[in-house]
Amino acid sequence: MTTLNELPCEIKLEIAANLDSTADFIALSQTCSELRSIKHYKSIRRKVFENETKHRLTPELIALWNVRHFKSQHETLQRTNQGLGTSRVEFQAQTDEQIISNLSDIAGLRRVIRWFTVQFFEYNLRERPGEDPPTATEISRIDNAFCALWFWMETPYDLLRFTPQSSDTPRQLDNLVMGLTCSTSDAAVRLSVYSFLRSQLAAMKQVYQSTNFSPEAVGYLAQVSPCITRYLNIGVPNMLLMKLGLDGVKKLLTDLEKQHPCQLAPVLAHPTTEERYPYDEEQLITYFTSMINSSRDSSTTTALGRRPLWKNGHNPSWSQAGIDPKIVFWDDARLRRWGYNYNVNVGNRGMIGVLWGAGEKRQHCLKCLPEWQCSYQM
Ligand SMILES: [Zn+2]
After folding, report:
1. Helix 281-294 to helix 236-257 angle, to the nearest 10 degrees?
2. What confidence tens digit (pLDDT) does each residue in 7-23 have?
3. What spacing in Å lies between the alpha carbon of 228 and ligand 1's midpoint?
């Protein structure tokens, strides 16, 4: 019998283009020099990623595609209908056929998500050289978390005329929002991913401070913000996420590497100056953590308690020293290798859960005066 290695390259090319797994494609491409040539590699890899997308249409991806589609319909209407009154597009979830026919666009969204997933793992493995690369389950966990966050970044409250606090979500959105409900464990993964995004954006603070904050702007902030430091560290990153979406944030981060910080200027108005959600700073600060919290299925809390997240002691509490809820995105096998243990108190009784904390400590700062050395005065 002929092995894969012995097949002529033309046949390998044919096989490669029909694969629906990027991992399989990479394995195959390593067996054939012609496949490794840039000309074939790029276009076939793109095709495989698209095939793969068809099999990975998660609820998160479908929800994201739907709100993006709705927004672009609305923008088209605005452009073609300028000054002709207030016609609106009603939100309507896309059918399966419509979704499948837009596969290459959806693959484009996945490509952006995957860029962030790669950054996320590089960041989290930076102090562990030689560690095994992320597994497929770890990768898809992070992909899904980025995708859910992206959905919340893109939700057009002004167009749909509701706010996340209101109990009456528009009925058409119900299915999408339900699809984002997740286990406590997945909610903790979303929290890790959100913290990562925020830290990437907060790291640019010096850049936007120097380009955007005149003495007058800081004076205005001091009047409206209960804590300027918190506003800069949490509020501004949240605002960038909500205004730019994940694709916009990717552009921002890559532009910054190329030293083009000027793109930032228009997005930094304090929420109280705009007539759109979020209406005030508190809503802006807590937006993502409260969405993560509200999407969490509380009945799965105990399952999280069964993960090997404990390095010492067995007290099932987020507040216990030595436990970091933000590591739940790793597989159990890897965590065990790093010395984490299962919590012996859970066992078969399964009654002991994990206290959930959204990671935001209560803030007590009042306007940060003097000298702006505030660290939220925690
Ligand atoms: Zn402060």
Report:
1. 90
2. 777 787 788 888 888 88
3. 5
